[in-house]
Amino acid sequence: MTVPDGVVAQLQELGMSMYEAKAYLALVAAGEPLNGYEAAKRSGVPRSTVYETLGKLTASGATYEVRTDDDTVTYLPLPPASLIDRLGRRYESTLGALRAALPSIAPPSRVHLIHNLTGRDPLLERAGDVVSGARHDLFLSTWPQEGAQLDGLVRDADARGVAVTTLTYGEDEDLPGHAYAHTLSPPAVVLENLGCRLFVAVADRRECVIGGFVDSDAWGIFSDNPAVVLVAVEYVRHDIAMQLVASRFPADEVASFWSTDDDLTRLRSDHGFAASALRAGGADGERPSGPRRGGRRRGRSA
């Protein structure tokens, strides 16, 4: 029996034991009723426990007993499509009950969280929680590499009436809601300045994930601290406003100003500091030293 990688583990996540998952898959692959001996042989479940395992599957409705004329008991699986539908209904019913019950148990929060996220998958998974939890508005600043992994959740948010606003670094013309491309600097220049692909997701002005991605590594934070959330959402709004303002002026004048203005040059002089700061925070290391400060000068406000 050849089983795709991960299927046993996925059935375990839905409530089956490892032996139950293996026995069920053996019955599905057989295409005909099996007795306990054959089910054990094909699944790798020990013969000493196979009947107990098949009994649990039958009790849960995942398999059926079939008795032959000589009173031999064999087993047939519930078809996979029916099993998936049944599990979906069962878990949705359970989740619905929990959605109604758990909020009434939890008292109003007295402590606001700020906790570190280290690694690409944990950061994007927490960002997915933020996107899925949005009910009113969602602000995103993302690159195509990370945006693609959240695309389905963002579209779901848009479909349920959430006001989605996205600033994207790179070409993507099919984003839901209001989407704006970062045009003042090419993505390669932004990446050189920051040292990472900066990512921000803010839901309902209530919680946020802020992080940076470098190849397959990532560091960041989740927070529901109002001050952190305010800074995150204003960062996205301000960056979008800058793109809109720049779009109203001749491109050559904007490019010249962006590349030659002394104040802008000074503000971009700390190449890579953003990535260093996020990496140090994610590793609970010492705070990296900032760029060396130059002398004060009079001029336009930064």
TrEMBL record:
Residues 11-80 form the Transcription regulator TrmB N-terminal domain. SUPFAM superfamilies: Winged helix' DNA-binding domain. Residues 278-302 are annotated as: Disordered. Gene3D superfamilies: Winged helix-like DNA-binding domain superfamily/Winged helix DNA-binding domain. Residues 293-302 have a biased composition (Basic residues). Signal peptide: none annotated. Coiled coil: none annotated. This is Transcriptional regulator.
